[in-house]
Amino acid sequence: MKCNEFRQLWEQAHCGMDIDASKRAELEEHSAACESCRSYAADIDDIKKALAAAGDAELPDGFAESLHLRLAEDAWERRNVQDRGAWSWIFRSAIGMAAAAVVLVAVFSVLPDRDTGLAGSETAAQELVGTDADATHIPADRFAVVKITLDVEQVEDEAQIEVNLPEGVVFVGEGGNPVAQKSMQWTEPLEKGSHEIKVLVQGTRPGRGVIKARAMTEKVEYVTNATVVVD
Amino acid sequence: MYDSISMSRKIELSSVEASSESAQCSVQDYVKRAADGDVAAFEALIGPYMQRVYAFALGFCRDTEEAMEISQEALIKAFRSIGSFRGDSSLSTWLYRISRNVFLDRKRAVKSRGRDRAVHVDGMEEIARSGSDPEQELIEQMENERVRDAVLELEPSHREVVLLVDMQGLSYREAADVLDIPVGTVKSRISRGHEALRDVFKAKCLLREK
Questions:
Q1: Do the chains contact at A54 and B207, CB–CB below 8 Å?
Q2: Which of A90, A159, A201, B133 is the most exposed place for a label (fewest CB within 10 A)?
Q3: In what helix (H) or strand (E) does residue A197 lie, and over which residues does it extend?
């Protein structure tokens, strides 16, 4: 047996391939006689061990969680093709909100010339409940992003925003886990104009309800609602 | 709540990975649900392979962030096309194939932009958090990084088979399926890859003295 043949056969023998008994005997015979091939075989053994160890990389922290959100985003986008566009970065920014422990995504962007049906301070007590046709439909046990539009009549340096969920709907937190609390608050400055609050939620029980959002300052309170139907 | 559902699905699925008819039905059921957009069903399917897909990507690029991006992009592509998975190859083979394509697409895109691959090491934080014997873990991690660097020096066709066979533990047949090449070609490439690696390992003092 020549060295080249030994090396090829040796490779096969060490990758679980069937080598017939006579060839195996030849391998051993050559190995006993050839120091160069013994050294080769020992080196390849070491290399294979090192490769196996190096191939066993651990997943980075947060891998599964960020993948989960991206998959949820993808699934949601496919179900709501007409809403494609501005969502990707919203979810990605949400992934980084580990400290908040809740993926409540509030994005305020000025969207002029948009009729939103908001309620101003004088209608604070009024609940605007739309029809099912206007509602955001959430398949039970699935995710959905609910958009709530809020019109602001003047610049507010600091407004306390509050979002309240009805029964049957929960916030989706880090890692795609439901969050127990039904209300979320935070503080933001607000520009004059229309703002969208986007909330990642999961339906837990079929039914119909209203997600209520409020923006409160010392002088004024803006209120708006979004009807959701868990199917 | 969600985690426990997902976990029970994973356990259920891993227990049916065998090729019995009932197991096949169960996997097909998950595939169907995942194709309908059921994220949890898809996660149950890919759960056992997620780490391997990431490690495979890491073998291609060495940059942990890029590996994360490649592997997640591959898994999202798999989610979108899971309906086309017919079980002709194993799920892992299918996922490796998608990951490889994602890597090649990105490489082509980067090449067309004329950008160089960025390589950086950011394992120190993980080691600091992992406890036990940080010094030993650091040594092992550095050693593994040097090994992955060595693999990156192989020519691409040799690197692929080394990654699949030696680092991911695929058989020659499975590697041939992933790469869509004959088994004989895998054999010859792995043999040449090992010879080339031997030289690289020697140059990097990665082989112990005998």
A1: no
A2: B133
A3: strand A193-203
Report the chain A residue with the minimal C-alpha distance to residue B37. Answer: A75
Taking CA–CA distances from A50, the nearest residue in chain B reads: B147
Where on the phi/psi map is residue A115: left (φ > 0), alpha (ψ -120 to 50), or beta? beta
In the numeric block, which tokens belong to residue B109?
């895109």
* Cβ pair A53:B144 closer than 8 A: yes
Q: Which residues of A touch B33 (CB under 8 A)?
A: none
Does ipTM exceed 0.90?
Answer: no
Q: Which of A12, A52, A178 lies closest to B166 in CB terms?
A: A52
| B156-200 pLDDT, tens digit each | 999 999 999 999 989 888 999 999 999 989 988 998 999 999 999
Residue A82: per-residue pLDDT: 38
Query: What backbone phi and psi angles, to 5 degrees, belong to A3?
Result: -60, -40
Q: Kindly compute the dihedral angle of the four CA atoms of residues B197, B203, B207, B208, in this order, to the nearest 10 degrees.
A: 170
* Mean pLDDT score, B140-146: 82
pLDDT for B93-139, tens place per residue?
Answer: 999 999 999 988 887 776 665 544 333 333 333 434 444 566 666 77
pLDDT band at B23 (very low <50, low <70, confident <90, very high): low
List the structure tokens of B127. Answer: 């080691």
The verdict on a CB contact (< 8 Å) between B190 and A11 is yes
Residues of chain A found within 8 Å of residue B169, distances taken between Cβ atoms: 52, 55
Contacts of B3 in chain A (CB under 8 A): 175, 177
Chain A partners within 8 Å of B50 (Cβ) = 59, 63-64, 67
Our CA angle for A141, A143, A144, nearest 5°, is 130
